[in-house]
């Protein structure tokens, strides 16, 4: 590290602790929106000298923030590359050092720069480039604004944005890394490294970083939260990492699946990790519907169809892709937890601990006449056997306590809070 860099870092730290000493924030809030054509969730961040506002896709399994934006580029006067060998480079845990010689240097092309692969989870594309830092402007839950200086990210090649929701400029990672959004805010502001996600069925909601207590109508929710360990895959599933490094993604230990009151007969080998890291269950905001290994998918669809007909007199109709079972909506009753259909329970560490999906989360309206079971076939060879996707993540408070490696999840919001309560009201 050069002497001049040391000096500027120190003066920044001093200024920073003075300006925020009196009002240490408790938690931060980020809005969630859902883009209607891609069903991707995104949030809005403000970054750089001009507080450029950027919409970025939310990825629970993403390592860091990456984006490309002409508007940011034009006002990037406070952008600084993260130099190889620096502390920030070290905690970024990237891959290699890039040498890029544009004069003057610009975001995305700087010399002697700590680098890593940004991952686009929709196309599978990786973008190798230098990492940089700039000021992230954040809003605390009490409305006050703060800055998080030296926020690390990658100014990526524009090509990497292919497949992202229209209007979005990149992706923000909430994975288990030191430079994910919640990790950076936790370390800057000395708040707990936990974040809660609550997304309504219309796709609006909030991410709260730092924990509760939450505001009405969610003030009692903490008492209802059910906890399950977030487990680590001993083999990294992130495309550029290797054996031996803790996983970026969040996995939970699903031990069985119950439809109605019938436990599915599953090949339980698929529910744990094999020596290559295949198997298990993760949570993925970048998939619209839960994806299941084909054998699990078939077992679920068969039992669901059987019970829907036998117990609820629901009429099956032709399937609509990508779903495996669809039904005549006129034959399905409605309730505050959505269409009245067999419940689906993911049973966790013990029989008493399960994540229950009611019709609101299990069924997808494809048109006025047809509702489909909102799970999709992941084929015979998915890396992860169960990837819980967006439609199933909506209408729950999901609190990720990264430090203690626990997921705390609420029962479905409509099942416990008065009707009309929605995750769009989730505040702290
Ligand atoms: C900074 O933001 C303002 C207001 O959005 C805008 O008018 C101005 O052009 C921006 N400056 C640069 C250098 O992009
Ligand atoms: C790039 O960085 C390397 C390593 O610090 C240095 O040796 C080299 O002179 C630099 N090149 C330019 C053009 O700045
Ligand atoms: C399972 O559900 C069926 C149909 O609702 C019911 O007849 C049966 O008693 C239930 N079995 C148990 C063990 O709850
Ligand atoms: C269970 O799944 C594992 C992993 O895919 C496979 O090797 C094994 O043959 C399966 N067992 C049965 C009984 O299908
Ligand atoms: C096996 C492997 O890839 N290990 C890497 C895990 O990450 C550390 C940095 O945190 C590397 O030094 C190891 O090589």
From TrEMBL:
Annotated ranges, domain Peptidase A1: 41-410
GO molecular function terms attached to this record: peptidase activity
Signal peptide as annotated in the record: 1-21
Name of this protein: Eukaryotic aspartyl protease family protein
Domain of life: Eukaryota
PANTHER family (UniProt xref): ASPARTYL PROTEASE-RELATED, BASIC 7S GLOBULIN-LIKE
InterPro entries: Aspartic_peptidase_A1 (IPR001461), PEPTIDASE_A1 (IPR033121), Peptidase_aspartic_dom_sf (IPR021109), TAXi_C (IPR032799), TAXi_N (IPR032861)
Pfam families for the chain: TAXi_C, TAXi_N
UniProt keyword Hydrolase present: yes
Keyword DNA-binding: no
Family label: Belongs to the peptidase A1 family.
Keywords: Hydrolase, Protease, Secreted, Signal
GO cellular component assignments: extracellular region
GO biological process per UniProt: proteolysis
Record localization: Secreted, Extracellular space
Subcellular location, principal: secreted
